[in-house]
Amino acid sequence: MSLAAPSSADFVAEICAEFPSFSIRKKRGAPLQNAIDVFLRVVTLGGMRTYLTNYHTVLFGTLWVPDHWDAMSELDKVILLRHERIHLRQRKRMGDVLMAFVYIFPIFPLGLAYGRARIEWEAYEETIRATIEFLGVDAARALKRGLIARFVGPDYGFMWPFPKMVARWFDEALERISKETR
Ligand SMILES: [Zn+2]
Asked: Near ion ligand 1, which residues have CB within 5 Å?
């Protein structure tokens, strides 16, 4: 039995109650975001080309949204915001300096960014949890291939290039979360 999702505006209000300075801004046209786009293209040798069009990024408490944001359904926005709220809580827990250090700095060496992988594992568990709540376990199970590709591929700078290990994490997380939401 799936829950009805709140509207994305209601969920944003809920996030703002917890993080008063939270805001959503468009990446396109923001100078720093354009600079990050160029930087990512260079360090991933062109592998990461969708930073401005498809990727959502939390930076210093603001959610920077790509072109794709306007085309997303209400439900997809809420599921995404559930993931990003975890990053806001991590930032609160770790502080900006440590969060940036763990998240951005270990881009060197590309391919073994364990700190970044840990941060994303925690946030993607929330993606799995929200997907189970609103769409059911089968929909969550269908996320597996795409998630493995994200961890091992260029999207996050090849942060954890071990597909079997990511697959094991996914299976274990799905099993555990589907039990706790039952
Ligand atoms: Zn994330």
From this structure: 120, 123
87 CA from centroid of ligand 1 (Å): 7
Work out how many domains the chain is built from and give that number.
Answer: 1
Within-domain flag for 3: no
- Judge whether 64 lies within some domain: yes
**Sequence-ordered alpha helix ranges (H) in the chain:** 8-18, 31-43, 74-94, 96-103, 114-135, 137-141, 144-152, 163-180
Q: How far is the CA of 147 from the centre of ligand 1 (A)?
A: 11
CA of 83 to the centre of ligand 1 (A): 6
Within 10 A of 24 (CB to CB), how many other CB atoms are there? 16
pTM: 0.85
* Ligand 1 centroid, distance to 42 Cα (angstroms): 21
Asked if residue 175 is part of any domain, the answer here is: yes
Domain that holds residue 174: 8-180
Report how far ligand 1's centroid is from the alpha carbon of 29 (Å).
Answer: 22
Q: For the segment 46-75, what is each residue's pLDDT rounded down to a tens digit?
A: 777 777 777 788 877 889 898 889 999 999
Specify whether the CB–CB gap between 64 and 22 falls below 8 A.
Answer: no
